[in-house]
Amino acid sequence: MSTVSHVRRRAPSRSTGRSSTIAAALSFLWPGLGQWYARRNREALIFAIPVLVVLLLVLMWLAFGSLFDLLVPAFALTFLLIVVADAAWRIGSGFHAAWVTGGRDAFGQRATGATLAILTGVVVISHLWASSVAWSLYQAPGRIFVPIAVGPTPAPSSGLASPSGGLAPTPGVTPPPRGARINILLTGIDSSSTRTHALNDTLIVVSVDPTTGTAAMVSFPRDIARFQEPDGTVFRGKINELMTYAGNHPKEYPNGGLSTLVDEVGYLLGVPIHYYASVDLEGFSKLIDAVGGVTVDNPKAINDPGYGGWTNGHPVGFHLSAGVHHLDGQTALAYARSRKGAGDNDFTRARRQQQILLALRARLTDPAILPQLPSIIDAASRTIRTNFPQDRIAEMLDVGSKITSDDAVRRVVLGPPYAKNPPPGTPGGYQLIIDMDRLAKLSIDLFGVDSRYTTATH
Length: 458
Description:
Blueprint lengths: L13 H16 L3 H5 L3 H24 L8 H30 L7 H35 L37 E9 L8 E11 L4 E6 L5 E4 L5 E5 L3 H7 L8 H13 L5 E6 H10 L3 E5 L3 E3 L13 E3 L2 E5 L1 H9 L8 H19 L8 H11 E3 L6 H10 L6 E5 L5 E2 L12 E2 L1 H12 L5 H4 L2
Parallel strand pairs: 1-6, 3-12
Antiparallel strand pairs: 1-2, 2-3, 4-5, 6-11, 7-10, 8-9, 13-14
Helix pairs in contact: 1-4, 1-5, 4-5, 5-11, 6-7, 8-9, 8-11, 9-10
């Protein structure tokens, strides 16, 4: 008679299973904690130190960096790789902690297995979200930073001295050297599906001087008309129509609509415009909402019963009391567009537009908006187009960090005395004619030797 011996594997004890579960949970919380709990100090240090180094780097970035750093492709890609590595590291640390505590038998414990499965799912889901944010950040510059070839500025045939000083500035082709003044044209394009053209109702030149840590914002009212072009001819329409007109008349303006506008603004202001950034005004309100709104100090009450720029069902009219207000996207857009209230005009509107931009800058540099990054990225990629080079983003961020307050930004609107109404009876409706002598003096005052008018006066 043969005998059959039954060998029964010893089931792991409850205490071993409990220890494995605790160790796994601790290492998911912070890699290395589970190993320390299991008194495997060497392994604990191996798992804990890399995460500690990353944490210290993140804290240093939060203290001294800017959220805009994430728009630098190399930075965003590094962030993505760190997120993926952190996920793998935490999962690996959790499983390792369970193994060193209970061996193979630990994975047969129902509690340990469930804990590992749940925590792995939590890590995967949270890090997938972070990875999607990082990947969006990496891709966003490709949608926002759209290079264009901006044509040269020909010398004028008569009248004003060439603001290029005999040179031919070609924004996007001959960028300013590092450390030199950077001039950017911000244009708000008011367009919609019901229009066959776009109007540049917002034209603001932002000039940043890296050596002094100061900046200037110069707004061109949309009704500036009958201005001289770089070739000496006179454009009879208004400046907010120039881009569309140039785009529809390629024989007259072979460089295209936006390039012509960029070139013209630089010609008038007396400094080359190196880059542009165009913002769709409807999308701008979504960007304001994405950052959680902006705070402004309204200098005087606004009462514009005829304002009809709402796109969310608001009734006609815009009213806002004087004082500090936190504005959502639609209200901020109304604040920037309203101009027909009592005591308001295109000049007060331009000043409010500058105010909104500074308020948005303050909001974007606030680390508290970090959770809103996905929606901010999406709104920005749908709203902003610029030819600013991606490889100079970090430099520009460093320059911007030196501008520590709004007081370091000089704001000018080219209304009176820099532009005045033409004589009564002049055809073309309401217009503003630039006083070029005053504008030249302002240019020298703002930009010093960087102004091309400086050489024209000597």
